[in-house]
Design a protein that fits this description.
Elements (H helix, E strand, L loop, with lengths): L6 E8 L3 H12 L4 E4 L7 H5 L4 E2 L4 H5 L6 H12 L8 H20 L4 E3 L18 E4 L2 E2 L22 H7 L6 H19 L4 E2 L1 H15 L3 E3 L4 E7 L2 E9 L2 E13 L8 H8 L14 H8 L4 E2 L4 E8 L5 E4 L8 E4 L13 H12 L7 E5 L1 H6 L9 H6 L3 E4 L2 H7 L4 H17 L11 H5 L19 E13 L2 E2 L6 E3 L5 E7 L19 H16 L10 H6 L23
Parallel strand pairs: 1-2, 1-11, 2-8, 11-21
Antiparallel strand pairs: 3-5, 4-5, 6-7, 9-10, 10-11, 12-19, 13-14, 13-18, 15-16, 16-18, 17-18, 20-21
Helix pairs in contact: 1-8, 1-17, 4-5, 5-17, 6-7, 14-15
């Protein structure tokens, strides 16, 4: 006897961040019915908590601003920045990404997304072939009141409650030390006050992006179910024909006539998986629901995995209450250096956050560098905004996360370092600051390094000397914006098996997948841009498929993968003798 479906849609989408919402919007625009299921009680995912930028080469705003770009330059740059990263970043996937940037940009713009250019934000390797400044875009601040009570069911209270834009951050960090920073600070204040005066609740960064997308999805009539993780895929004759979601009222069988799209994030908050694949529990800025559930479901359907050992790494400052605050501009500004536990520099402090994170982790294998220490001259503390230190100076000092001393030697003693070693490091760096050339690590050499520098400091905006006390040391540990590894997909966002064959009816996008950006981070928004593009491509491919039959056979129901109704990934029961995930 065939088990009946509880409901039917054309496309079932798991996840309510950028990947899932874009997939659902694209499906609805193609005339399909879509249903979004979110595993947690709050929608928005990690996108809601992010900077909200998208790295979009050849996007239409570039032409309007007179910034030259081309398909060839974008692909040349991706090759130079990413290199050979295996099938996750195949030439076909890179081409699909670049080719569809203008298409998804125009689709979403036509549906109401108000795009804005982060025109001053450079690629992270701007000196490599094809590198540019101005490929980053974001969404204009959004009035959250337009979503009514639905906002209270989002992760809005976990994000920045102000209309902050990506291109504000680099200037606001020096709002009281440079004229351009002061002007941008004033603009931000007036933008915020303007929203208040007009009765709006303006939000920016990732919140503006995901709320704008949710408003479009709601206008299209797409339903969103919270607390409803996909815990089982139903397979009939080798094709995914639907899924079982676990709800507070029990399991619900949903037929997906055109396909199931998994866009429910990675495994950044799954401590067991992090320990297994990364060798550490992690300090992630990802949403709490980033538990790897969708990845596990895809594996149980036969999906292959790739890049599970990597993450969107960065630096972070431990919080007195546990976890850590991601650190962006602080390590790049002048009058500061980062040293290991022996008091030595080991990398370019102004490098992209993923490169810095990789370098810290790799260096720690030979010399203890977790935690490292950010050593600051008093001028750094007085001139530049430190978001990590805003968490509470007193509690940070009580926990030993922040340490101060009048001299470098005294500070070294408090940090259990050889005073002579730290003094030698500082003296050598101060020499570089005076000449403007970091002979050890090339800090301040590129426009990306300079982006988070201080143009008032000469001859190099990243190399202010450490000469004036009291000096402050801040603990630095690896942080991340999410994980990079997951299901292996092709240029249509179809999930592939171990033989590289697409699993019919199953798609994935975002951090649920192994990243097309490989092991690096080409430019601002390299996480969200592919999530949006491949969510779009997944829905387009699904829309072109023939609808499945009305019900799965009893045999299919019996052979469907299962996670025993748990919202946390259990050890998968998989064919082909795959290594268990946990």
């Amino acid at each position: 006897m065939t088990t009946p479906w509880d409901r039917e849609v054309d496309v079932l989408v798991a996840g309510s961040g950028a990947a899932g919402l874009t997939a659902a919007i694209t499906a609805a625009d193609a005339g399909l019915t879509a249903l979004i299921v979110e595993s947690t009680s709050k929608w928005g995912g990690t996108t809601m908590l992010s900077g909200g930028g998208l790295w979009m080469p050849t996007n239409p705003l570039m032409k309007k601003l007179g910034i030259p770009d081309s398909r060839a330059d974008a692909l040349t740059y991706m090759e130079a920045a990413i290199g050979d990263a295996g099938p996750a970043s195949s030439p076909e996937r890179r081409e699909a990404f670049v080719d569809n940037v203008p298409r998804v940009f125009n689709l979403l713009a036509g549906l109401g997304v108000r795009w804005s250019a982060a025109k001053d934000y450079p690629d992270y390797y701007p000196d490599r072939p094809g590198g540019r400044t101005g490929r980053g875009i974001e969404v204009q601040p959004f009035n959250a009141k337009r979503l009514g009570d639905w906002v209270t069911l989002s992760r809005a209270n976990e994000s920045v409650p102000a209309p902050l834009k990506t291109d504000d951050v680099w200037l606001l960090s020096r709002a009281w030390s440079t004229p351009t920073g002061f002007v941008r600070g004033a603009q931000f204040v007036f933008r915020t006050l303007g929203g208040i005066v007009t009765g709006k609740r303006l939000v920016g960064l990732g919140a503006s992006l995901v709320m704008t997308l949710m408003e479009i999805a709601q206008k299209q009539g797409t339903e969103v179910l919270l607390d409803s993780p996909v815990t089982e895929l139903v397979i009939d004759d080798g094709r995914v024909v639907g899924a079982i979601i676990t709800t507070k009222n029990g399991p619900v069988r949903i037929r997906a006539r055109r396909g199931v799209i998994l866009g429910a994030g990675g495994f950044a908050q799954n401590k067991e998986w992090r320990q297994k694949y990364h060798g550490m529990a992690g300090n992630s800025s990802a949403a709490a629901g980033d538990q790897g559930t969708a990845i596990a479901v895809g594996v149980r359907a036969g999906g292959a995995l790739a890049m599970m050992d990597d993450a969107w790494w960065g630096s972070a400052v431990p919080s007195p209450k546990g976890g850590a605050q991601f650190m962006l501009s602080e390590r790049s500004m002048p009058f500061g250096i980062i040293v290991d536990q022996a008091g030595s520099r080991y990398t370019n402090e102004s490098a992209s956050y993923i490169d810095f994170g990789h370098d810290m982790i790799n260096h720690d294998r030979e010399t203890p560098a977790i935690p490292s220490w950010l050593i600051l001259d008093i001028r750094h503390r007085r001139r530049y905004l430190s978001s990590a230190l805003l968490a509470g100076g007193k509690s940070l000092r009580e926990k030993g996360i922040v340490v101060s001393a009048d001299t470098i030697e005294e500070l070294a003693t408090k940090l259990h370092m050889d005073p002579a070693a730290l003094r030698a490091t500082v003296t050598r760096f101060n020499g570089f600051a005076k000449t403007g050339v970091d002979e050890d690590f090339g800090r301040g050499r590129t426009v990306y390094d300079n982006y988070y520098g201080d143009p008032g400091v000469k001859p190099n905006p990243n190399l202010g000397p450490l000469e004036k006390g009291p000096f402050t040391a801040v603990q630095v540990v690896p942080g991340d914006l999410g994980t990079k590894g997951g299901l292996l997909t092709d240029e249509h966002a179809r999930v592939l098996d171990d033989a590289g064959i697409p699993i019919a009816g199953l798609y994935a996008a975002g951090n649920t997948t192994a990243s097309v950006m490989g092991h690096t981070y080409p430019g601002p928004g390299s996480t969200i841009a592919p999530a949006v593009v491949f969510g779009y491509l997944a829905a387009l491919h699904a829309a072109a498929q023939t609808a499945t039959s009305t019900a799965a056979s009893p045999a299919a129901s019996a052979s469907a993968t299962t996670t025993s109704g748990s919202t946390a990934p259990a050890e998968p029961v998989i064919q082909k003798e795959k290594e268990p995930l946990v």
